[in-house]
């Protein structure tokens, strides 16, 4: 029988762990426990709930109000790992600077980032948004249309990214992609990047922006980028969306081509 | 020779002729040189092509680059300063870099080149070349250069054969030539000495150095005449050998320093702050070795060899009741049983005045060793502190903040890319921070919040300390209750509760402090000191609670002793009462020593407690190391393949090496040794063992499972901080030891001082019986208060005097420093004026300043206050004064 005094001596450890990792506990609570509870209570998926909120609170045809409604829901009600307003600003800035004509988005989720990107694109530019999950894709479709972007501006492709990328040139008639935004499964970052390289879609100066490279993190991706020498790269330090204390970053790569 | 001529023709340069000609006279190729040339042959060939084309192409029609090359080559030949033929690599590098230089070259050598390239003016040139040849004959340096030049453009194979015959024969030289040679050698020597100060690029310096050294090697031995020359050569050779030997010996000495290479490697990976811990550990090991030598050589070994053997006396025998379990591992692990009744503990020693054929004064030796270890420790710690203080006295960190940062922030011992990255990042951030600090030194709007947070943090820490103190107190009281009940009725957990709780608190509370200290937002160096102070307080509180508990226990034991003493007399009386009536002449009853009743012997109890504490502490350290570092590293490393987030970069990550906690652990461990060593002579030995193992274990753990700290910082200043803490601990740990020695009478039936009223009576006893009468008289006179008090007074006065003189010296130092600054300022002002007059020599300086100024303005432009700008500019100028 362990004496209570010894158990009490572990108290500082517990307190330390709680204080040090408090944000992770908050994240766990908001992203997992609340979600499971709400799933059981409402019978809707998380994305559908978010869409309902947006539908009731946002002005149709106004992308900014839709984004705001999403931010509101994600920070106050539940948690969805959208790109968030802070990192979104970086994304906006890069898009403004780059003004790409062809944009590929991997992982549309519920359309937040697609709307965010589409509103910053120059006239005549086209955004190809890839989403694997059918249910999410329908919601993303609805959100995008709600924001007032038609089929010419945003094209949603419902398929896994590793199947879409090789077919982009043949099926969608793309020559090069100017801007790629990655926000899907972190494990797929590296294979998809290699697929993009292999298919020759990347031209000199094409920019690739990968979200969440520090948390949850894509170490293999970063290691490859560092070593390959094909890219000029930098990491934008930020925090995880809607949660303050967790450090995260976006990797910005500019394809230099083989010298 | 013919080939040489050919090459001359192709390049159209007459100089070559003269140099080739000279080769016959001076030829001094060694095998090494020839090999080099063979290597160069290919390059030479390539150049030949270019050169021949140039010859064909003629005059200024050549390609610009080639012209530049040629021009440079010629210029070199024209140059008579002899400061080194630049090497081919350098030439190529220059070609890459220096377009501008090429232009200069072409301009400079334009006239000459044109002259040379035109065949009409060949005659003139010949004359020129001839003159030059004469000159060069006098000067050995040029000879070499020219030979090299020509041989580059020659077919080497033939040259080799030729040169076999041409050996340098100094005897054949005329006296003037020798003189010249000597001069050249002297010049080279001077050059080597002053090379460091020359404003040349490093590459040029290196090549020049190498060349001059080669030259010296070649010609130094050739100087002097006849026998003298040989002697001189011999001398030079011997000096070189001697220097080499010295160097090797230095290396050997470094190799002999224990763990030096290990520590250097760690330093290269983790920076000097982690390495300072290991250096401290090594230093501690050295001290413990000496303590161990003293106790082992003067106490344990004599007792084991010459004292009465085990089983001869009650104090040297395991009592009858414990005999059955005396050899059990659990008992031995608790240092009971046979371990308790051995030389390891105080109680085993006999109070016999002199033992063995050496008449070794055991009790006296025991006492003196106890005092001597403490005295030695004091001496060493204070001496080291003084030495460190001397070393660190030089710098003042407050003025010239940026210069200090600029020139001293790099840790040159770092040899690991990751650490270098971290260091680089930390330097950049420190620069940013420093600039921000400069800019916002006055307006600190959030000072109240910071103050509040700091106070809050300290409050939390105090709460934590109080809590841990109370927990230990509670546990100790409980353990006394358990002890009264009898230990066998309780589980292992309950018996070891005190040690466990102390170790756990010592392990976890620092982590909590660390978390709390993030509130305060200090610079890491200051944060480290706060952290050290807090852990210090925690450990000290724990230790003193433990000691107070021990004191209580000592008092209990002494009460028990009284009872035992009384019982003893009763028992003895009964023994004699039982035997005496039978037969008065019968031999006295022999009782086996194991059966004799004995006192509790509080000294051994104290020793045991300390040994147990040390053991449990060591165990916790090692187990923490294995679980907290190693297991964590393994899990992070291998679970990362199949985990949903990045374990290495994110949440658990690898652990960092905790310098403050480890240093304090070491210091307090040492404090326990000092406290307990008097009652358990085995403690220094145990500690040596522990330090030895932990040296290897921690070195391994650091290299294998830790990552460099994110903010690497230098720890050079903290060494004295550690020492100061060690001194405090030394004092605090000797305090209870001395208190017990002086105030509590020793046990009546165990230990070297049994039977005396106080332990230090052994000194008096020795004085009375071992020294002549006059000595004890003198001693008694010397020790009376009338003499001691004035002596103490004198000492206090001396200390006061020394301190005040040192203070005045310090002030003088500060004054001198100020004067130096003034002088510097005056000088730079003068220089500025000069620079206003003639801009060109000072242009670079001005440029640097203006650049810095503009960059500063750029950085402060955001905050955009003119006044501030001026201030920063002034500060910058101050810094620049130091730079320039």
Percent in helix of chain A:
40-55%
Total of helices of chain A: 12
The total of beta strands of chain A comes to 7
Give me the side-by-side strand order of the main sheet of chain A: 3-2-1-4-5-7-6
Radius of gyration of chain A: 20 Å
Major sheet attributes of chain A: 7 strands, mixed
What oligomeric state best describes the polypeptide chains here?
A: heterodimer
Judging from the principal axes of the Cα atoms, what is the shape of chain B?
globular
First-to-last CA distance of chain B: 53 Å
Would you tell me the structural class of the helices and strands of chain A? alpha/beta
Region (Disordered) (chain B): 1-177
Biased composition (Basic residues) (chain B): 39-51
Domain TMC (chain B): 601-716
Membrane topology (chain B): Multi-pass membrane protein
For the structure shown, list the relevant keywords.
heterodimer, A: 259 residues, alpha/beta, seven-stranded mixed beta sheet, 7 strands, 53% helix, 19% strand, globular, B: 884 residues, mainly alpha, two-stranded antiparallel sheet, two-stranded parallel sheet, 74% helix, disordered N terminus, membrane (chain B)
Task: Give an overview of the whole structure.
The complex is a heterodimer of chains A (259) and B (884). Helix content of chain A is 53%, strand content 19%. Chain A has 12 helices and 7 strands. Chain A has a 7-stranded mixed β-sheet, with helices on both faces. In chain A, helix 8 links the parallel strand 2 and strand 3. In chain A, helix 4 (46-57) crosses helix 5 (63-77). The longest helix of chain A has 21 residues, at 22-42. The longest helix of chain B is centred in the middle third of the chain and has 56 residues, at 524-579. Chain B has a domain at 177-253. The two termini of chain B are 53 Å apart. In chain B, the strands form 2 sheets. A two-stranded antiparallel sheet of chain B has the order 1-2. Chain B has 884 residues and is mostly helical. In chain B, helix 14 runs antiparallel to helix 26 and helix 17 (362-392) runs antiparallel to helix 27 (719-743).
């Amino acid at each position: 029988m362990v004496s209570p005094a010894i158990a009490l001596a572990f108290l500082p450890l517990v307190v330390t762990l709680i204080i040090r990792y408090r944000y992770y506990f908050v994240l766990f609570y908001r992203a997992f426990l609340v979600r499971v509870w709400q799933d059981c209570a409402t019978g809707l998926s998380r994305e559908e709930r978010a869409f309902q909120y947006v539908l009731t609170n946002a002005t149709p045809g106004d992308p900014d109000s839709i984004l705001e409604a999403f931010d509101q829901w994600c920070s106050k009600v539940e948690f969805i790992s959208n790109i968030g307003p802070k990192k979104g600003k970086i994304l906006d800035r890069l898009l403004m600077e780059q003004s790409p004509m062809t944009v590929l988005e991997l992982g549309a989720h519920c359309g937040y980032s697609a709307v965010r990107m589409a509103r910053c694109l120059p006239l005549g530019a086209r955004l190809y948004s890839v989403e694997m999950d059918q249910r999410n894709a329908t919601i993303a479709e609805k959100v995008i249309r709600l924001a007032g972007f038609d089929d010419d501006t945003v094209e949603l492709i419902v398929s896994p990214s590793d199947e879409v990328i090789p077919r982009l040139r043949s099926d969608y008639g793309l020559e090069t992609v100017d801007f790629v935004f990655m926000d899907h499964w972190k494990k797929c970052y590296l294979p998809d990047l290699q697929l993009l390289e292999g298919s020759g879609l990347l031209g000199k100066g094409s920019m690739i922006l990968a979200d969440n490279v520090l948390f949850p993190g894509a170490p293999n991706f970063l290691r490859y980028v560092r070593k390959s020498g094909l890219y000029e790269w930098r990491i934008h330090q930020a925090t995880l969306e809607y949660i303050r204390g967790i450090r995260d970053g976006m990797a910005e790569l500019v394809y230099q081509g083989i010298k | 020779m013919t080939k040489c001529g050919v090459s001359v023709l192709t390049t159209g340069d007459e100089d070559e002729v003269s140099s080739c000609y000279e080769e016959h006279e001076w030829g001094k190729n060694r095998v090494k040189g020839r090999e080099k040339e063979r290597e160069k042959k290919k390059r030479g060939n390539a150049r030949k092509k270019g050169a021949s084309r140039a010859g064909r192409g003629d005059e200024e029609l050549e390609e610009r680059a080639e012209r530049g090359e040629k021009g440079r080559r010629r210029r070199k030949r024209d140059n008579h300063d002899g400061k080194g033929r630049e090497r081919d690599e350098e030439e190529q590098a220059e070609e890459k870099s220096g377009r501008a230089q090429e232009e200069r070259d072409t301009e400079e050598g334009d006239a000459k080149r044109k002259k040379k390239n035109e065949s009409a003016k060949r005659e003139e040139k010949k004359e020129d070349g001839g003159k030059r040849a004469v000159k060069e004959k006098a000067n050995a340096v040029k000879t070499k250069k020219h030979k090299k030049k020509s041989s580059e453009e020659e077919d080497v194979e033939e040259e080799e054969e030729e040169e076999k015959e041409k050996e340098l024969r100094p005897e054949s030289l005329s006296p003037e030539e020798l003189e010249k040679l000597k001069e050249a050698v002297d010049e080279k020597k001077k050059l080597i000495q002053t090379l460091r100060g020359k404003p040349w690029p490093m590459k040029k310096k290196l090549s020049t150095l190498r060349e001059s050294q080669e030259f010296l090697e070649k010609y130094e031995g050739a100087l002097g005449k006849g026998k003298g020359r040989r002697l001189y050569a011999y001398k030079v050779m011997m000096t070189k050998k001697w220097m080499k030997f010295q160097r090797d010996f230095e290396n050997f000495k470094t190799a002999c320093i224990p763990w030096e290479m290990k520590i250097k490697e760690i330093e290269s990976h983790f920076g000097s702050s982690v390495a300072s811990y290991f250096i401290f550990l090594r230093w501690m090991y050295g001290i413990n070795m000496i303590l161990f030598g003293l106790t082992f050589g003067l106490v344990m070994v004599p007792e084991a060899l010459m004292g009465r053997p085990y089983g001869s006396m009650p104090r040297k025998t395991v009592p009858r009741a414990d005999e059955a379990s005396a050899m059990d591992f659990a008992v031995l692990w608790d240092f009971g049983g046979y371990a308790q009744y051995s030389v390891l503990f105080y109680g085993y020693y006999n109070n016999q005045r002199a033992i063995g054929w050496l008449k070794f004064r055991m009790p006296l030796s025991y006492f003196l060793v106890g005092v001597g270890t403490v005295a030695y420790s004091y001496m060493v710690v204070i001496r080291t502190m003084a030495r460190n203080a001397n070393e660190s006295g030089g710098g003042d960190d407050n003025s010239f903040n940026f210069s200090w940062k600029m020139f001293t922030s790099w840790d040159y011992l770092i040899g690991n890319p990751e650490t270098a990255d971290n260091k680089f990042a930390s330097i950049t951030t420190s620069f940013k921070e420093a600039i921000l600090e400069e800019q916002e030194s006055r307006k600190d709007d959030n000072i109240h919040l910071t103050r509040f947070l700091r106070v809050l943090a300290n409050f939390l820490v105090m709460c934590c300390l109080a809590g841990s103190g109370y927990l230990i107190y509670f546990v100790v009281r409980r353990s006394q209750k358990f002890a009264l009940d009898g230990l066998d009725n309780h589980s292992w957990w309950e018996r070891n509760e005190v040690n466990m709780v102390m170790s756990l608190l010592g392990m976890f509370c620092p982590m909590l402090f660390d978390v709390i200290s993030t509130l305060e937002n200090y610079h890491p160096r200051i944060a480290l000191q706060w952290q050290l102070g807090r852990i210090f307080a925690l450990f000290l509180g724990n230790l003193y609670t433990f000691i107070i508990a021990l004191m209580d226990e000592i008092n209990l034991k002494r009460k028990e002793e009284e009872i035992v003493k009384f019982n003893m007399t009763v028992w003895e009386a009964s023994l004699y009462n039982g035997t005496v009536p039978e037969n008065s002449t019968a031999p006295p009853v022999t009782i086996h020593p194991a059966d004799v009743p004995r006192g509790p012997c509080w000294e051994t109890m104290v020793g045991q407690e300390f040994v147990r504490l040390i053991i449990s502490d060591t165990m916790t350290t090692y187990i923490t190391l294995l679980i907290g570092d190693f297991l964590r590293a393994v899990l992070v490393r291998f679970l990362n393949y199949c985990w949903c987030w990045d374990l290495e970069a994110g949440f658990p990550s690898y652990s960092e090496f905790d310098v403050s906690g480890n240093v304090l652990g070491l210091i307090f461990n040492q404090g326990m040794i000092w406290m307990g060593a008097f009652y358990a002579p085995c403690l220094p030995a145990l500690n040596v063992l522990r330090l030895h193992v932990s040296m290897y274990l921690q070195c391994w753990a650091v290299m294998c499972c830790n990552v460099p700290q994110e903010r690497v910082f230098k720890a050079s200043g903290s060494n004295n901080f550690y020492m100061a803490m060690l001194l405090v601990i030394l004092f605090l740990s000797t305090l209870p030891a001395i208190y017990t020695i002086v105030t509590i009478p020793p046990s009546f039936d165990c230990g070297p001082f049994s039977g005396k009223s106080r332990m230090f009576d052994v000194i008096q006893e020795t004085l009375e019986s071992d020294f002549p009468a006059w000595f004890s008289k003198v001693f008694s006179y010397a020790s009376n208060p009338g003499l001691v008090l004035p002596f103490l007074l004198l000492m206090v006065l001396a200390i006061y005097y020394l301190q005040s003189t040192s203070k005045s010296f310090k002030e003088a130092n500060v004054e001198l420093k100020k004067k130096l600054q003034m002088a510097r300022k005056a000088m730079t002002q003068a220089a500025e004026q000069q620079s206003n007059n003639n801009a060109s020599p000072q242009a670079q300086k001005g440029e640097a300043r203006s650049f810095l100024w503009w960059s500063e303005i750029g950085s402060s432009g955001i905050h955009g206050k003119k006044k501030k700008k001026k201030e920063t500019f002034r500060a910058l100028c101050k810094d620049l004064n130091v730079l320039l």
